[in-house]
Description:
Number of strands: 9
Radius of gyration: 17 Å
CATH superfamily: 2-enoyl-CoA Hydratase, Chain A, domain 1
CATH topology: 2-enoyl-CoA Hydratase, Chain A, domain 1
Number of domains: 1
Structural class: alpha/beta
Strand order of the largest sheet: 1-2-3-4-6-9
CATH class: Alpha Beta
Distance between the termini: 37 Å
Largest sheet: 6 strands, mixed
Amino acid sequence: xxxxxxxxxxxxxxxxxxxxxxxxxxxxxxxxxxxxxxxxxxxxxxxxxxxxxxxxxxxxxxxxxxxxxxxxxxxxxxxxxxxxxxxxxxxxxxxxxxxxxxxxxxxxxxxxxxxxxxxxxxxxxxxxxxxxxxxxxxxxxxxxxxxxxxxxxxxxxxxxxxxxxxxxxxxxxxxxxxxxxxxxxxxxxxxxxxxxxxxxxxxxxxxxxxxxxxxxxxxxxxxxxxxxxxxxxxxxxxxxxxxxxxxxxxxxxxxxxxxx
Length: 260
């Protein structure tokens, strides 16, 4: 099972665990959305910690799954990847309680969508954040990247596929704390504990109020991005990039981020 949930003292910890790099298939991505949506009616949950085990916080969608589902010449794999990502990103943003993202390793593609919509972010030292979408013949999650870095930095990162470090994001204020990998779990627990100690009704209202005054409709803007992904797929660019990746003909995104 790629997702594990544990609830202790009002904190629901969801751990993504799908070796080798925590790329999520559509079913697991939908399942993540279902877990997050379910906290609306669970009074025992006051805060969520979203984290991962092993290599990578999340490396994006499951490219093998997309290609297998699209092998008949259709686009079902891409459509399901798009829909499931939209649902998961929405569920993080609309989760009734605050979501703390604890980023243990590189955070790419889908990971940016999840983390960018989280309420609080803590990260391990030297973790790289980025969107390799242009190299994948696709687009998406620039909406969420722009919640993490300034607009022109986001443009460069999208066009170049260059990563930004956790330390750089901390300097922007989007990452609350950067700690050693060994300290990450305890730090996430500490941060979540501060929120869990608040009055749950007031905290839920605070989350809803912050969403209500957000200047960007993240769901609509992400769907706009997805339209370009589908156009590129119709032109064959997405399939070309995914096939090259699976054949080992395209170098993976460099996992060592540049400095600011």
